[in-house]
Amino acid sequence: MAVNNKSVAEKRKYSVLDVKLAKEVARLWLHKTQLENAANFGLPEIDDRYHYWRVPIVNTKKK
What we know:
Layout (H helix, E strand, L loop, with lengths): L7 H4 L7 H14 L6 E3 L3 E3 L4 E3 L2 E3 L4
Antiparallel strand pairs: 1-4, 2-3
């Protein structure tokens, strides 16, 4: 049996293919909104239903 080692993102030909690039896109957005020092990231994942990356943004301030 042949094994297909392509990720879901590669199979679906997404522009963003991995977690590293998904975080970089989110980091650029945070930089443009001047929030790069106010947030960290949770675990990115591909949303299979809507076909986009979901990158949780977590507040760095603790209550």
